[in-house]
Amino acid sequence: MTTPGRRPSVGVHPTATDLSMPVLELARATEARGLESIYFPEHTHVPLDSLDITANWRMSERYQRSLDPFVCSSFVAATTSLEVGSAISLVAQHDAIALAKEIATIDHLCGGRVVVGVGFGYNRQEAANHGVSFGDRAAVVEETVRLMRSLWTEDEASFDGRFRRLTPSWSWPKPVRPGGPPVLLGGRATERTFERVASWADGWIPMGQTPARDPGLGPHLDGLRGAWDKAGRAAEPQVLCFFPPGSADEMTRELELGARLGIQRMQVLLEDRTTDEVLPVLDDLATAVGRLGS
């Protein structure tokens, strides 16, 4: 278990679009304030016949304009020292072999600074357009991760699953970190989610929960750690938690409670804000981080 009180690594989670604060400008501003990471979400498109499932038009507009998380990560990694990655990537909608190569290449070039957040997705038609059965998507995500790990860790990689297959193959470069980049599964706090994390991921991204706004997060983390121990996993599960922008005091509270809960990574949700909207949030977040110390 993470030592309570240790400050989480703090960063930002933008929904980068062609209209929001430019990615490199945001990354440099993030790094200049002593923050440590930037991860990007993923939606390749928004099918018009799926609009009824989005919470509102603004959400749909963000997602239909969102930039690719791994292209953004490569740009940021080349120009800053930030940790980069996805949160979350809908990996079932990718070619698993090509995605493994893309992630390994970015990780190799940036010296091991990639984190891969994955999820199942909620948009049935988006999945269908990628040839993914909505009912099978969780299994496809698991097999995608397992196949990618084989490519990342084995000189002669192979995988034989129901949805993903790889005949014995060579593929380099390997990621810098042994075992490959950390893979974090985004999902609701359920026993099944925790079992999945303990079985084939490196950690969990709670969806819709923050330390200050959800008193149930602590017990849920206990449930995660229980599943982790039951599976015989070493070390500890990594946890990434998002929280909304607020005053410096409000964000300090989120970070303090996150530290008490042993959360390793926390990121403020910037959505698709413009430069004028983002910079004050970064300033207040830097103030909050400074209050916690190292």
TrEMBL record:
<protein>
    <submittedName>
        <fullName>Putative F420-dependent oxidoreductase</fullName>
    </submittedName>
</protein>
<feature type="domain" description="Luciferase-like">
    <location>
        <begin position="23"/>
        <end position="248"/>
    </location>
</feature>
<dbReference type="Pfam" id="PF00296">
    <property type="entry name" value="Bac_luciferase"/>
</dbReference>
<dbReference type="GO" id="GO:0046306">
    <property type="term" value="P:alkanesulfonate catabolic process"/>
</dbReference>
<keyword id="KW-0503">Monooxygenase</keyword>
<dbReference type="InterPro" id="IPR036661">
    <property type="entry name" value="Luciferase-like_sf"/>
</dbReference>
<dbReference type="InterPro" id="IPR050172">
    <property type="entry name" value="SsuD_RutA_monooxygenase"/>
</dbReference>
<dbReference type="InterPro" id="IPR019921">
    <property type="entry name" value="Lucif-like_OxRdtase_Rv2161c"/>
</dbReference>
<keyword id="KW-0560">Oxidoreductase</keyword>
<keyword id="KW-0285">Flavoprotein</keyword>
<keyword id="KW-0288">FMN</keyword>
<dbReference type="InterPro" id="IPR011251">
    <property type="entry name" value="Luciferase-like_dom"/>
</dbReference>
<dbReference type="GO" id="GO:0008726">
    <property type="term" value="F:alkanesulfonate monooxygenase activity"/>
</dbReference>
